[in-house]
Design brief:
The structure is a homodimer of 259-residue chains.
Chain A: E1 8-16, H1 34-46, E2 53-54, E3 63-73, H2 82-87, E4 94-102, E5 113-122, E6 136-137, H3 144-152, E7 156-159, E8 174-186, E9 189-196, H4 203-216, H5 223-230, E10 246-253
Parallel strand pairs in A: 3-10, 5-6
Antiparallel strand pairs in A: 1-3, 1-4, 2-3, 5-9, 5-10, 7-8, 8-9
Chain lengths: 259, 259
């Protein structure tokens, strides 16, 4: 009577070096996406075509330490065995770090989350070749205090239309940033850490580019208020910082029931 | 009368991600070496075939923050302009970080130096894809105190025949290590830093592999004394740690006269 195994939904925590990939989301006729690699590894492991649904569709070149994806399976493989089993089938620059079973109606994009991103700056006049893949080089002196002052105006709920790509298709451009912190990690390294409930297209990279301009003295920290008020990307002189400096560190799901 | 420009010898400080290269030293019919790339950049810049002489012939896959190389030139390019001028001609994973004029008889391998190497360990059960290129993953727990205790027996002048490749062609296998320090940099990262006056072939990688075995509990720290005394690589159960975890951080030249 018990011949049909129960279907489980499994949530994976996924880390990757995005350098070689055209972003997270699967693309027609382009196998070089994180999602396509996860699909291929799962399909090979389970012997049946399986597709993941990702939590964050990171851009081409963006990295992750803690992106997430779910898939459904009727296999009897114990949940805790999925990371090692999938990692033997994945390329070295994608690693499944953890797996847990979640309820069958859990959707990683239709639930409230807090995402933490880090933007890394290689702040020296000649780029460090060992950080070329993971940091944006900025040769100019950066005033960290000014950057934090500018960042303080972005914290809270605002209309971030001036901080998102003009190509956004979001219904609303209101978002809440819970925290931004700019720290000089070493003499040559500056980290911008941004936490919030969902982000618009290119939003963290535009925040990083705007804070870099504030750090160089080309934007006054108080100007951020006017830039926000303009609700217009072209009113923001901050550039979109390159993708390679951005890493999605973590996603916290507020309503995640363990099964 | 002053038509023939004076010949200068210039010392470059060179950093590189060694992942894509077959080591530092130029090889016949193999253009993927650091030396060949430096030669090509200098030759393109100066318009005349120019070859560098390197300080340390790092192995295939080994990285550097501060390797060094000299070349001779009769060009009138100011010494301080060489880094930027060469970096426009070099691939992004090789950077010239500094240049200075040295005396015409300075040879970077025929002078006493102190070299500092760092071996990086990614100490977690699932490898971090953002450190895959620069660290060796060790999933086992490592006892840092034991590693430092084992390292203490290596400091000083010894015959390091048990810690060098059997393929060494060195006349003597006596070397002096001035310092070894093992630190847990973060919860997941262990750094082994080794300083000394010249090293034998694979010596730092064998030291790293031996200290990892000590950290796992498979070698007792005091055994290092017997391993040294054996003067035989096969008497050392320590493995040769993979090249990608090794970075040449710095070379200090003891008799470097500034010109």
């Amino acid at each position: 009577m018990n011949r049909i195994p129960a279907k489980r939904r499994i949530l994976l925590s996924v880390a990757y070096d995005g350098t070689a990939y055209h972003g997270f989301a699967r693309l027609k006729e382009d196998p070089k996406t994180i999602e396509a690699e996860l699909d291929a590894a799962l399909t090979a492991l389970l012997g049946v075509r399986t597709e993941v649904t990702g939590a964050s569709r990171t851009d081409s070149g963006v990295h992750a330490m803690g992106n997430a994806a779910v898939f459904d399976t009727v296999s009897t493989i114990p949940t805790g065995n999925f990371p090692d089993a999938l990692n033997t089938k994945l390329p070295y620059d994608i690693r499944v770090r953890a797996a847990r079973e979640v309820s069958g109606d859990f959707h990683p994009r239709h639930t409230d989350t807090i995402k933490t991103y880090r933007y890394e700056i290689d702040n020296e006049s000649i780029a460090d070749p060992l950080r070329y893949r993971y940091a944006m080089q900025v040769g100019h002196e950066l005033d960290i205090e000014r950057m934090n002052k500018a960042a303080s105006f972005l914290i809270g709920e605002h209309d971030f239309k001036s901080f998102c790509s003009v190509h956004t298709q979001a219904k609303t451009t209101r978002r809440e940033i819970t925290d931004i912190e700019v720290v000089r990690k070493t003499e040559q390294t500056v980290y911008i850490t941004v936490r919030g409930h969902g982000f618009l297209y290119n939003m963290v990279r535009i925040i990083a580019g705007t804070l870099i301009e504030a750090g160089r003295g080309r934007i006054e920290p108080q100007e951020i208020m006017e830039i926000l008020k303009a609700e217009d990307r072209t009113a923001n002189p901050g550039f979109t910082a390159v993708a390679k400096g951005l890493t999605l560190l973590d996603i916290e799901f507020s309503e995640l029931e363990e099964k």
